[in-house]
Inverse folding.
């Protein structure tokens, strides 16, 4: 039977996972704690799985790819939009460590509850929580070192750029691509595009 370690080894072999801290997070934050019981036998398959309310927990290799682009660091303040069952939130909590913080936002009430319960399975010293998403995308008025979005937008979400600190990174699916935006200054945003991905739609 496949294990989390075997899944991680496969992602390292396929060059999806490279960074030691991200690799350590994947080995520590087992996907099994975030997958509904009825899909238990597929926990370590490299595929998305339903988590209720027409939402999914993302494919592990896609999560790995996005986190490698996000480049989360120890001590970062991170916003996780579309936190779902909270797997990415928990991975990020592990990565940023005691000096960092992670806020997951989720629009589906049942997933806010499910994600919060899943996070509670770990004893993070990091300020790490899930909250209900508001009418606006993200958390306007606050700024973060990193923003991860796990659902596909139709267009570039300009309203997220003010929520990034200078030097901050936003990783988000738009259409069938994953985009990495780096905030170089208040007036300059660098963009990279990576093709060939499928996500549930971002609704807000």
């Amino acid at each position: 039977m496949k294990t989390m370690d075997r899944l991680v080894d496969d992602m390292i072999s396929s060059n999806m996972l490279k960074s030691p801290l991200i690799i350590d997070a994947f080995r520590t934050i087992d996907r099994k704690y975030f997958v509904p019981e009825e899909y238990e036998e597929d926990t370590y398959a490299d595929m998305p799985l339903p988590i209720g309310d027409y939402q999914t927990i993302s494919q592990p290799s896609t999560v790995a790819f996005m986190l490698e682009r996000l480049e989360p660091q120890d001590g970062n303040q991170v916003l996780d939009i579309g936190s779902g069952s909270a797997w990415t939130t928990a991975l990020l909590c592990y990565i940023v460590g005691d000096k960092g913080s992670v806020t997951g936002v989720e629009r589906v009430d049942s997933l806010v509850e499910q994600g919060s319960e899943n996070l509670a399975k770990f004893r993070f010293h990091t300020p790490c929580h899930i909250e209900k998403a508001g009418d606006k995308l993200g958390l306007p008025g606050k700024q973060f070192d990193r923003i991860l979005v796990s659902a596909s937008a139709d267009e570039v979400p300009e309203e997220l750029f003010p929520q990034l600190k200078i030097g901050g990174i936003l990783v988000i699916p738009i259409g069938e691509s994953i985009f990495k935006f780096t905030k170089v200054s208040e007036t300059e945003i660098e963009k990279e595009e990576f093709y060939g991905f499928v996500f549930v739609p971002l609704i807000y």
Q: What stands out?
A: The beta strands are 49-52, 55-57, 77-81, 101-106, 128-132, 144-149, 164-174, 177-183, 189-195. The chain has a mean pLDDT of 92.
